[in-house]
Input
Amino acid sequence: MDRKNTEFLVLLAILVGVIGLMWLLNGADFMNLGNFQSMAFQLPELGILAMAMMITMLTSGINLSIIASANLSGIVMAIILTKTIPPESTGPGGIGLVIVAILAGLLVSALIGLLNGFLVAHLEISPILATLGTMILVSGVAVAVTEGYVISGFPDALLAIGNGSVLGLPAPILIFAAGAFMMHIILLRTPLGSRIYLLGSNPTACFYSGVNNPAVLMRTYLISGLYSGMAAVVMISRFNSAKADYGESYLLLTVLVSVLGGVSAAGGFGRIPGLVLALIILQIISSGLNLMGVNTFLTVALWGGVLIAVMVIQSLLDRYQEKRRSV
Output
């Protein structure tokens, strides 16, 4: 059995164990349908941001600006919506302007992604430093534009995206499912996906295989930016507001979800199914801890400990496999 199947089965076993543990600790409160519906509304925005992080990690990079990108994208949408559409508007014109606002927000996040790609691919700046600089720049712009205040009061056509349901399923979970499917297709069914994995595994071999490494990186960070914009749509529609510092705690969690889902920090390995399972595991643990009344700050500390533990385990497994191959 290869590594990806082994890790998937391990994650599946962990998921079953976590569900059983939280059921024992919280009883009927955890197994309540309302609790699962609440998780289904909360999971998508983190999941979409995790995919934005994952695709850059596959190239052995990282994108620290995904949260800042999502917030600025959401602020641009919010400004357009609040300046042009009354909150009670439901007509075709209002829906059309909502679409325009969403497209404008996605354009902003795409441009931020291209900026990251240019810095990493063409100026050859370390991804962690390039995206850190972009994060600070974008966060500063967002604060300057809003002066630190919340922008709220969106039309019902937008709020339905984050709070509505389709055939009994929360609309955000359907958006997440569509995003996961698209990312899965990109990574496993397109030439770009193959090049991303090859670039992350061995950039020198990738270059001598005739691949344009900078072009692959540009497209990778562009996709990451677009997924940040997609997360922004879900966030502002769910909260009915936009602000410069929303979702700051998600940055650690996107890395944690990616690593726990089997994405190698060194690049070149990772699949969407593993990330989805890891995301569900963390959401269930978070919901269970919340029902138990565990302090939020203690929960954040727990995520940090889990991230360190997962990386240590991955390192030990990699060393073990290297020793087996050398024998």
